[in-house]
Amino acid sequence: MRTGGYYLKKFAHYVSLNILSMIGLSLYILADTFFIAKGVGRDGLAALNIAIPVYNIINGAGLMLGIGGAARFAVFRVQSDKPNMNRVYTVTIRAFALISAFLFILGLLLPGFLSSQLGARGSVYPLCKVYVRVLLLFSPAFILNNILNAFVKNDGEPALAMAAMLTGTIFNIVFDYILIFPVNLGMTGAVLATGFSPVVGIIILSFHFIRHKNSFAIESFHSPENETELYQPGKEKPVNVIGAEPMRGTLIRVFSLGAPSLISELAVGVSVFVFNTLMLHSDGNTGVAAYGVIANVYIVIQSIFTGVAQGSQPVFSEAAARNDRAGFLTIRKAGLVLIIIMSIVIYGMSSVFASDIVSLFNKGGSAKLSAIAVPGIKIYFSAMIFMGINIFISMGYIARGLGRRAQVIMALRGFFILVPMAYILSRVYGTDGVFSSLPVTEALTLFAAGLLALYDKRKERKSYQLGS
Questions:
Q1: Above 70 in pLDDT, residue 463?
Q2: Closest CA to 358 of 380, 330, 326
Q3: For the whole model, what pTM was predicted?
Q4: Do the Cβ atoms of 386 and 304 come closer than 8 Å?
Q5: Residue 240 backbone dihedrals phi, psi, to 5 degrees
Q6: Cβ atoms 213, 157 nearer than 8 A
Q7: Which residues, including other chains, have CB under 8 Å from residue 157's CB and lie 6 or more apart?
Q8: Which residues pair with 230 in a beta bridge?
C-alpha cells in the first residue's frame, strides 16, 4: 500500500506540469485573440469568437480520445497488462482516423455553411469562413496531439508532454505575429500559425517513441465475436490472450470515460454560440467582441483548473487500480484545497485588473466594448470556484471508471442548466443576466454533484450493511 506522501508527491509533480500544459493549449486561441484584435480589428475578433465552437468540437474530440484512452491505459499499466495497453492505444488511434477524416472533409466542403450557421454575417463572414476552413483541415493534428499528450503523460513522461504543449504554444505566438504583421496575411496567418502548432507538439512527443520509452504500441489484431485474439509480430496466426478486452468493449470504454471531456468542450462551444446570439441581439457586433474578450480569457483560467483535474488523473487512476481508498481521498483533498486557493487568488486579481485586461484587446479604444466587458469579467469570472470543483470531481469519477456520473455533471453544467438559465436571466437582467448565468449554472451543478455524492455514499453504506 502506498503512503499519503507518495501520492502527494506524485500529485504535485503531475499537476504542476499539467497546468503549464493546459495553459499552453488554451493560449492557442488567446494568442489569436490578441494578435487578431491588433492586426485585423473588431470584425476579426467577432469572426474568431463565432468560429470558437468549431475549435471546441475538434479539441473535444481529441480530449475524449486522449483522456478516455489514457485513463483506461493507466489502469492496465499499473497491472502490467501489456496486451490490453496495446489494445487501448490501437483502438484509440483507429477512432482518431475515422473522426479526423470526417472533420477534414467538412473543412474541404462546408466551411461557408458552418460559418453562416454559427452566425457570421456581412464583413465578418469571409473572415470566419477562412478560420473555420483551416481549423478543420488541421483537425487531425489537433486530435492526434491531444491523444499522444495524454498517453505519454500516463506513460511516465509528464515533462515531455508539457514541453510539447509549451513548444507548440511558443510557435503559435511567434508565427501569429510574423504571419499577421510582417507577412500581412491577416486572419489566414493567424489560423495557419494555430494549425501548425500541434504539428510541432507531435514532433516533440515522437521522441517518446524514438527513445523507446513507450510501453505501448499499435498492434493489428483480430477479434471475432465471442473470441479475443491478438496478433503478435512475427506470428502467422493470432495468439489467444487471456483476459484481453474485446475491441468493441475497449472502444465503448474509451468513449465512455472520455465523453465528459467532449461534453465539457461542446458545452463551451454551445455557451459561446448562445451567448453570441444573445449579445448580438442586445449589443450588436461590439457585444459579441466584448464577450469574445471575456470568453477567451476565461478559457485560459478554466485551463488552469482543468490542468489540476487532468494532472490528478494518472494519480487517481493508480490509486483506483490499487484499490487504495486512503490514497484516493488524499489526492481528492489536496486537489480541492488547491482549487479553492487558486480560485480566490485568480478572481481577486482579475477583478482588480479587469479594465487592464480588456484594454489589451480593445484596439480601437471602444468605450462601449469596455463598458460591457469590464463589469462582465467580474460577474462571469465568479463562476471559477464552482467550475474548478465540478471539473475535478468529474475527473475523479473518470479515474474510477464511473464515466456516466462524470457525464451527468458535465451535461448539467454545459447544456441542461446553462442554456435555459442564459435565456431566462438575459430576459430579466439583460447583458448582466447573460454573464451571471455561468456562475449560477456552475453553483447549481455543484449542488447536484453533492446530491449525487450523498446518494453514492448511502448506497455504499447500505451495500456494506447488507454484506455484513
A1: no
A2: 380
A3: 0.79
A4: no
A5: -65, 140
A6: yes
A7: 208, 213
A8: 239
Output the nine-digit C-alpha cell for 202.
507531435
108 half-sphere exposure, CB direction, 13 A CA radius: 6
Cell of 32: 489569436
Q: Is a pLDDT exceeding 50 seen at residue 33?
A: yes
| Residue entry with cell 467538412 | 106
Cell triple for 300 = 485560459
Number of H helices, E strands in the chain: 17, 2
Sequence length of the chain is 468
Angle of CA points 301, 303, 307, to nearest 5°: 125
For the ranges 245-249, 270-274, 444-448, the maximum mean pLDDT occurs at 444-448
* Per-residue confidence band for 435, with pLDDT thresholds at 50, 70 and 90: very high
The candidate with the shortest Cα–Cα distance to 60, out of 198, 259, 258, 265, is 265
Q: Is 117 exposed, middle or buried (0-12, 13-18, 19+ CB in 10 A)?
A: exposed
CA distance 452 to 402: 12
Burial of 370 (0-12, 13-18, 19+ CB in 10 A): middle
